[in-house]
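Let us practice reading a record.
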Amino acid sequence: MLFNSIEFLVFLPIVFILYWFVFNKNLKLQNALILVSSYVFYGWWDYRFLSLILISTVVDYFIGLNLDKRNNINQRKLLLWSSMLFNLGVLGFFKYYNFFIDSFINLFQTLGYEINSVWTLNILLPVGISFYTFQTMSYSIDIYQRKLKPTKNFIAFASFVSFFPQLVAGPIEKAHNFLPQFLYRRTLKLVDFKSGLFLIAFGLFKKIAVADNVAVIVDRFYSNSAFESVNTTFTIIAIVLYSIQIYCDFSGYTDIAIGIAKLFGFNLMDNFERPYFAKNPIQFWRRWHISLSTWFRDYVFIPLGGSRVSHFKTMTNILIVFLVSGLWHGANWTFVIWGFGHFLIYLLSDSFIKQIPIKLPRIISGILTFAAVSLLWVFFRSQTIHEAYTVLDNLLLFNFYNMPFSRFDFLQVLLLSFTLLISDILIEKNKLPHNMFTTIIYIMLVVIFGNFNSNSFIYFQF
């Protein structure tokens, strides 16, 4: 079920009314309603994959209970690794099995050996598996690290794992931050209700009005597999617009998720803080997909030694995080290159800040950061490495011709992007009120300019 669908427009009020006006005096029934609603929400795509969520929930629930009972370090490590291997095994099979098989075959073919692929399977990737897998793993890790006591309330734990607002595209919540919210009575405050509605309207504006209209031009560019009608101007426009599209698409989902959670008395972490306002790549990653960045920081980077080791080892740890982050996004070498590219600009930025005393003006450093991030998005968007190189090569052709899209579409995109820029500036300065007036404005913008083709969110594929 999509946030930007008629089905969800009917689904959400029904769950909201039952939650606050029928089961409001019973926490167990509220959690049960959340659990059932979440399974209906997810099963709307393919009910067969509900078994994966349920099995993952059961496995980590019982591992968590046993972890708390064990004091022997070897037994605790065995239980932790059982959780990790199970979750990563499921994720690896559905998401990376064919990737590694095909990479293995291609490697041998480059060495002159012909191998027929008899092991490749037609595997359908479950929506959001990367998100809820990481969330359940955080539960076992937090218990192992003594940050959290396991819960015996299975319904509350299952609701934490499958909470429908953030189930398929985050934010990825750590168990010690989010699970306790299911264990205590929740109240709906007027300020949270207004803020929730505003975030939903603002998120829909980002997705339906901005991202989906931008997608018309971007998809037209990338759908031309041979790039016959592509020129330098169109290439630059497509690269910049995709940066806008992926930000609005993903942060729009996050805004809607946080807003819906507020309507039910929950607080989700912020996942974006105007990342394109960053003045360097280091700051960009403190503002972009914060829940994933902090997950890798807490559960990968710090256990590897973090920054408490030598500079070389620290940089190696950062490289590992970026490569794993790239592979997390998709089973394609384009994502690995995207991750490695971000490591390089991160390393260059770190070296520049520490070793060169010259301080660039904020506007210049911001433009350079946006340009570097936008160029790397080419690998993220492209289906193959060859396609990405072809796109980047077009930047060096210096052929400028008329654009293969209407001026009206382009002017509309510019207007909506400018509206978004002003909105983000006001939010950055804490001057955009979360009240009914601003909510209505963004709803009107969605109604007037929205692209209602029920386009799926980009991050659902991860």
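A brief commentary: The chain has 17 helices and no strands.
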